[in-house]
Amino acid sequence: MITALPIRGVPVVHPRVSPNWPADVFGRLRLEMPISDRSGPPRGVPLSWLRTNFEILSTHVDPETTKRHLFAYLLWLFGVMFPNSHGEVVLPGLIYFAAKIVDKPLPQNPSYSFGSALLSHTYRGLCDATQKTAFTSKAPLLCVSYEFLQLWSWEYLPVGRPHIVEPATPYNYGEGVVTMSSRWMLGRKKWSTKIAKNCYPIYHDQFELLNDSLITWNPWTEAHIDMVFGSQHMPVECVRDSAFWMTRCNLLYLWFVEPYNPDRVMRQFGLYQDIPPPVPRCIDEETHK
């Protein structure tokens, strides 16, 4: 509903990464990656380098040039969707999926389960950022899709979200897939003027005072959908995989294995929520690592 990413499809799990991946990137983009300042091999493809060299595509170009720009755009998009602790780079494992998408005609339905991959990546990022260990002296980093996490928070939680003063119907902005999050991006928003500096303690206190009556457990009501889309229909991409929303399974992304237990958040699906929630199905420690 927020991203319209597919759930049905092949897991985003790559084969073994080739040690010659920088040469593979050069072969596809016809451009050498910059030399990193750090010692050792590069950690990934720099996002700034992709933006600088492939952001603009001329109107009249040959198919090969278009293919190179599509490959570069997919790498950049994956870097935004799946940030990592190595900096603003695309992990080498994601090169495989960009190449697979570019080398074949675009299918009618998406081939990969990027929706479950985004959830798996988000769960692991939140887990790593909130649990300190004795094995590292570095402060924990929050490596998640920040746009997705922010939009999810605005939909469900009353803390730190803006007020939409001028709603905008997404379909007024041309063609393309629109989602429930389009209202936050397109509508004119008003932010609180009382929280400008040193807001972290205030947000922390507001989270501490939250109770279940203040949380929007189900933001996908008919009235809410009508407010966003007006007289237009909701895109099929938002609900095409709704049959899998209640599946209890393990979510996969590269080497991440994260449990998905929708029975712990039944209220957002319009169902009865057990309090306390039932004991979750756990993954053994070795599989999780």
Automatic annotation (TrEMBL):
<dbReference type="Pfam" id="PF10536">
    <property type="entry name" value="PMD"/>
</dbReference>
<dbReference type="InterPro" id="IPR019557">
    <property type="entry name" value="AminoTfrase-like_pln_mobile"/>
</dbReference>
<dbReference type="GO" id="GO:0010073">
    <property type="term" value="P:meristem maintenance"/>
</dbReference>
<feature type="domain" description="Aminotransferase-like plant mobile">
    <location>
        <begin position="2"/>
        <end position="281"/>
    </location>
</feature>
<dbReference type="InterPro" id="IPR044824">
    <property type="entry name" value="MAIN-like"/>
</dbReference>
<protein>
    <recommendedName>
        <fullName>Aminotransferase-like plant mobile domain-containing protein</fullName>
    </recommendedName>
</protein>
